[in-house]
Every structure is written in C-alpha cells, then in structure tokens.
Amino acid sequence: MKVRFWGVRGSIPVPGRASSRYGGNTSCVEVRPRAAPPIIIDAGTGLRRLGKVLMEDRFRDGRGAASILISHTHWDHVQGLPFFAPLYRAGNRIQIFAQRRDTHLEAVFSQQHGAPYFPVPLSAMQAEMSFHALTEGGRFELGRATVTSTRLNHPSIALAYRIEVDGAVVVYCSDTAPFSDLLLGREFLIHPPPLDEPPAAHIATELASLRAGVVALAHGADLLIYDTQFTYEEYRQRPHWGHSHPDDALGVARDARVKRLCLFHHAPLRSDDENDAILARCRGAAARGGHRLEVLSAQEGLELALGDE
Amino acid sequence: MKIRFWGVRGSIPAPGPDTVRYGGNTACVSVHTRAGGLVIIDMGTGLMHLGNALVADGFGAGTGRATILLSHTHWDHIQGLGFFSPVFVAGNAFTVWGPGGSPELLETILEGQMDPNFSPLQTLKNFAATFDVKAIALGVPLVAEGVTITAREHPHGATTALAFRITEAGRTFVYASDVGQPTGAGPDPGAIAFYRDADVLLHDSTYRPSDQATRRNRGFSSYEDAAAAAVAARARRLVTFHYDQDYSDDDIDELVASCRQALDARGGAAIGLSPAREGDELEI
Fold first, then answer.
1. What long-range pairs does A204-210 form, CB within 8 A, spacing at least 24?
2. Mean pLDDT of all residues in chain B?
3. For residue B57, what pLDDT band results from cuts at 50, 70 and 90?
4. Searching chain B, which residue's CA lies closest to the CA of residue A241?
5. B8 min Cα distance to partner chain A (Å)
6. Which of A23, A46, A111, A125 is least surrounded by CB atoms within 10 angstroms?
C-alpha cells in the first residue's frame, strides 16, 4: 500500500511562507491499497487537492469509488469535503464512515453544505454518497483491507483507525490528548483543571483502558501517524484541548512496538524550522530511549510505500 | 483610514508554495480609522492573524473595541471567528453588523459554526469578550468608530452579499466582495451609484473572464467586471480581491496586468490599481 499526506495541519489551514514546506492544509491522508480504490482518512482542506488528482483518472468519468474515514467532525477534519471534486460527478461512489452521534451522520454533513454557509446543498451532489455510523471498536472490510477503530481522548470524542492490507499496517491516531490527566468527552472545559494532582481513580482506570485500546490498535504497525500538535510544555498549558506531544507519542509507539512513528497534526502557527527542531528532538529522545523505531514528521506530498508493492 | 489585508482569497484557504506572495487566507480586511477606531470586514481565516496582531495591543489587556461588518455567512467569510484570540479576552467588546434583517437569525447562523459536532467551543457564549450580533439596515447610514457606514445588498449566486461604503472626513472606502451579476450584464446603476467617487473601491475579482463565463452561477466577478465598475463609478483606485483558490501567484500577476489593461481600454487610465495582497496596507 501507499500512504500519502495531503494535509498535516491541525485546527485551521495556514497559508504562508513560514509553513509552506510542511504544508498548511488541514488533516487528510490517503491510503491506497494496491490496485484498489483509495481509503482516505479525514477530510480537511488537503482533500481538495487529492480530489483534483483523482479527477485526472476514473473519477473524471464517474467511475471512481473511494471511502473516507472521519476521525471526528471538527472543522479541520471535514472542511475540505465541499471542495472534493469527485462529489460533483455522477457515477462516483463515496462512502463516508464516522463515529455514531446523536444526530444522523448525513444530517451532520448536511449542516455543512448548503445555505446559509455554502452554495451547494449535500442533496445536490451528483455522486452517490453513503454514510456509515461506527461504534467504538468497530471492525469492517473495505475490499481486501480490514479496518478497526478505537476511541481517542478528545472533546466530543474522536476515533483512531487501523488499516491492514497488502501485508502492511497503518494506524491513524488523531486527535487525542495523552491518557494521563484528563478524560475528555462531551463536557466543555473553559479552563483547564490544575494538573498537579493525579486524576481520580475511576478516571485513571478509564484513561488506562483507552490507552490500552490505542496500544492494541497500533500493535506492530508499520506506520503510526500520531497527533503531536503540542510540545510537552504547550500540553501542560492546554491539556483540555485534546492534543498530544512527541514524548507521549513515543511512549505509545514503543509500547505498541511500531516500526515507524509519524508526527502529525502540526499546530497552525508552528513554522517549518520549529517542526524540524521538534523532529530532531524526538529522534534524539527515541535514540536515547533505545527504541528501534524510525521517527518522521508529516509533510504535504510525503508518500510512503508499505508492505508488498 | 488605514486599510490592511489579512485574507484575500475566495472559497477556501489555499496554502502552498505557489500562493505565498498574494496569500492563501480567506477574506478579512481591517480599517483603522483616523478617529482611532477599528472596523473589521469579514471573518475568513485572515482574522486569526489580525487577532494575533491585536492582542499585542489593547486587545490583550481586555480594553479593545471593534466593529465587525459581515458581507454574508458563507464559510470563507466566517471561518476565522473561532480562532480570533481577542474574543477569548474578557473586557474586549465586538459588535457584528451583518445581513439577514434579523439579529436572532444571524446569531443562530454564527452559532451553527460553533455546533459541538464541529467545534470544541460549542457555543458563542463561551467567548469571554462581549460579542453583540446585530442586523444592519440596508441604505441607512450607521455611525461607528468615527466613520459612516452604509450597506447595500448585491446578487451573489443563489443568495446575496452585502457591500459596505465607509466614509470618514470626506474620504470613502467601498468593500464589494462576492458580487456577481447573474446575466453577465454590467453592474447595475444602483451599484455604480453606491461605488460613486470612492477613493478606494475593493471589488470582487475572483476570475479571469474565461473562467467566469463557465461559472457565472457562482455569483463572482471577473477582473473585467471590476474594471468596468471602477470606471463607471469614477473610483480613484481599484483593489482586486477574493482570488480563486486555484490561482497561483503567477496567475494573479497575469490577472492584475490584464485588469490594468482593461482599466486603460475603458478610459480608466487615471484609476490606480492595487491588487490585494496579505499584509499590504493602503492609506486613504
């Protein structure tokens, strides 16, 4: 399979010179099994350029099929969908998978399309669209690929995905906070609680169980893509935002015995030079810890080949 | 008035090495008035960067005040709001004047962006600053920040967008983004009267004419339309704005050069042309 990064940024797209090497588009990763339709993870603004490339081929003639796995529906993970050109061509088939919510998924996405926010309603899309609500821990097949998921630690809840195909495994864990301090769910935290005391026992137990789920999901992965929006110091200031840092990602990668860790969901105002420095520090920490894993940092346009070619 | 461009792009932010010169952020313009006030027009992703500049100022201490004018509520004109750091500082106060004729309806629309399905903020009520949403009355002058503001409704595809005329001490700035005549006819006389004698006319210039011809239903203008409006209204300076997300810096260079030719060909050789670029400032 091939894995290609189309959007690597968190929170909001950031055009500009300071970040154009890593890229300013929000989250979107393409997983392409050999001779099979693409499995796209998240629909941030990176999806627009992926859509343009797909339209050079079968999707242009309305013969394309793609699956989109949504980690959660926060803007930076869905805002590219209205600009995904294959949706505007009859005959294309697009399946969207996301966590089950109180509102039907199609209704959630309908809110994003159409008046008063966008000129084209979802119902006017020419492609055949289907919506599939997932429960935590759901497992399903997409062609030869097996997809499994588990819950992450993020406000309003996000799902991590494991895709196994062509003798390789890629795991996507974004967005999530570390599993050490706060359990994030439906509640809105305007101010972070102080982190100087450990969480209550029942919270600690639930966090440990979530972490065990993530470690199991990532077990033996060839590539683990992980939310490292924050540095450790930034995380301590904003633990309630639901994002992690490289030290925490290294811990999960080590426990899950993954081969490669990819830092992902870069903070919007993080410059290319700062991202270089974060990567160098994380590689240093991995080497000092004696981990036999490779660390890289996601950049727009980066493509990795995994497993059988 | 000091006009500054924070986002000049249409539809969706367009990051990438080929958009760094003009900028890839969506619509946001600030106007610092001579009277010392601040008017912000539209809340695209450029608003985040304006906000970060403002907190270094009185907005960091909670003493900031601004009037925000909203042309319409398509994503590219509101998507910066949740990332506008001054709204998270108690004491700051914002009044948003927007379309729709009903402040309740407009507030509900802005709330929709903060819906817990989409945003961790969950509701506008989590802002620490005062954030007052009002509906602007069309054609009725409003005095704020030491300037007089008038709004006019223009066709924008299947909907409408507001244009704003801002006057201070006899000088006039007109903001007319997201306007597109559905028939391809020139601008209507009412619009020309609204733009009349503007010192600076910022006009939608999303497309080159060839692209506009195939996408007329989207409700945007070409640089030709912008040039025609500037000449007919006898504007002193034209600002091109709201570039298509697929246009590279080189494409926009060409668009601007063609716009200059279009102005000259229509008898507008005396009209200045300033393409909107992120970070650029114009003083009237």
1. A207/A153, A207/A179, A207/A180, A207/A181, A207/A183, A208/A179, A210/A150, A210/A151, A210/A152, A210/A153, A210/A179, A210/A183
2. 96
3. confident
4. B120
5. 11
6. A111
Cβ neighbors of A202 (< 8 A, separation 6 or more) are none
As for how many domains chain B has, the answer is: 1
Using alpha carbons, select from B243, B248, B206, B247 the residue that is nearest to residue B18.
Answer: B248
Does the complex come out with an ipTM higher than 0.85?
yes
Least confident residue range of A136-145, B146-155, B197-206 = A136-145
Distance from CA of A23 to the nearest CA of B (A): 6
Q: What is the pLDDT of residue A77?
A: 98
pLDDT in tens, B138-166: 999 999 999 999 999 999 999 999 999 99
What token pair was written down for B82?
């949740």
Domain that holds residue B38: 2-283
User: Is the model's pTM score more than 0.95?
Assistant: yes
Indicate yes or no: CB of B12 within 8 angstroms of CB of A111: no
A15 and B13 within 8 Å at the Cβ level: the answer is yes
Domain at B234, CATH number: 3.60.15.10
Q: Which of A102, A117, A237, A299 to mutate to test the interface with B (most CBs of B within 10 A)?
A: A117
DSSP B26: B
- The model's pLDDT over A180-199, given as tens digits with 9 standing for 90+, comes to 999 998 888 888 888 888 99
Mean pLDDT, range B85-109, rounded to an integer: 97
8 Å CB contact of A12 and B83: yes
Cis geometry, peptide bond prior to residue B120 (ω within 30 degrees of 0): no
The CA distances from residue B53 to A40, A306, B28, B50, B85, in Å, are 36, 44, 13, 5, 10
Q: What is the pLDDT of residues B220-249, one digit of tens each?
A: 999 999 999 999 999 999 999 999 999 999
pLDDT value for A309: 60
Q: Render B149-174 in DSSP notation, one character per residue.
A: EEEEEEEETTEEEEEEEEEETTEEEE
Kindly report the backbone phi and psi dihedral angles of residue B147, in degrees, each rounded to the nearest multiple of 5, phi listed first.
Answer: -125, 160
Cβ-defined contact of A15 to B83 (cutoff 8 Å): no
- Look at residue B140 in the predicted model and tell me its pLDDT: 97
- What is the domain-level CATH number for residue A211? 3.60.15.10
If one counts the domains in chain A, the total is 1
Neighbours of B33 (CB within 10 A): 18
Q: What amino acid occupies position B162?
A: L
| Burial (0-12, 13-18, 19+ Cβ within 10 Å), B248 | middle
Cβ-nearest to B218 among A19, A119, A156: A119
Domain interval for residue A68? 2-305
